[in-house]
Amino acid sequence: MASILIVCTGNVCRSPIAEAALRAALTERFGNRAPAVSSAGTAGWEGSGAVGGSVEAAAERGHDIGDHVARMLTPAMVGDADLVLCMAAEHRDAIRSVAPDDAAARAFTLKELVRLLEELPPAAGADPEALAGRVADAAAARRSGAETNPWDEDIVDPLGLSMEAIRAIAWEIDAWIQRLVAGLCDPSPARRVL
């Protein structure tokens, strides 16, 4: 797998935190062989930095997003990504409306993909080349009707919320990213938690 694109609305809160968390987790696993991770927004605040509360909450979790620059999502970004991770169902649905079918098949909410991976047999091991196969297996499971809890797919948008709420959302993103990486890479059975 060469690249992962993370999508939210403005690309100034959730997706920058998730981008930094996933990049760190994959770099820890694979070093310089880690897939590239980037982010964009469906209504991206093109050229804006991450909002202050998100920068602070990310830093408290060990992630530096102070230099983040927001980008507007384009069909080309979606087409180039091997995996598109969305912070909410509305973002996945937006991908499906603008992207070719094969790209839309690679678009999941973060929680949806984690739950699908946790229902699959364990990964063969930590090899970045095997990640695309795990994503394809998750897509096949989704097509066959695997349940993922459609009532809990979204990471709440922290824009305008209190600092405590932003910290909680950053913690939630980190926790789901750790489960994602385990589901993609770990040969031991993943813990299933709905």
Describe the structure.
By secondary structure, the protein is an alpha/beta fold. The chain has a single domain, classed as Response regulator (Rossmann fold), CATH 3.40.50.2300. Helices cover 47% and strands 10% of the residues. The chain has a 4-stranded parallel sheet with strand order 2-1-3-4, sandwiched between helices. Strand 1, helix 1 (14-30) and strand 2 (36-41) form a beta-alpha-beta unit. Helix 2 (52-60) crosses helix 8 (163-185). The longest helix is centred in the C-terminal third of the chain and has 23 residues, at 163-185. The model has no long low-confidence stretch (mean pLDDT 91).
| Total E-strand runs | 4
- Determine the strand fraction and express it as a percent band: 5-15%
Structural class: alpha/beta
* Largest sheet strand order: 2-1-3-4
Helix content: 40-55%
Write a short abstract of this structure:
By secondary structure, the protein is of the alpha/beta class.
Task: Furnish the topology, listing elements before pairings.
Blueprint: E1 3-8, H1 14-30, E2 36-41, H2 52-60, H3 75-80, E3 83-86, H4 89-98, H5 101-104, E4 107-109, H6 110-119, H7 131-143, H8 163-185
Parallel strand pairs: 1-2, 1-3, 3-4
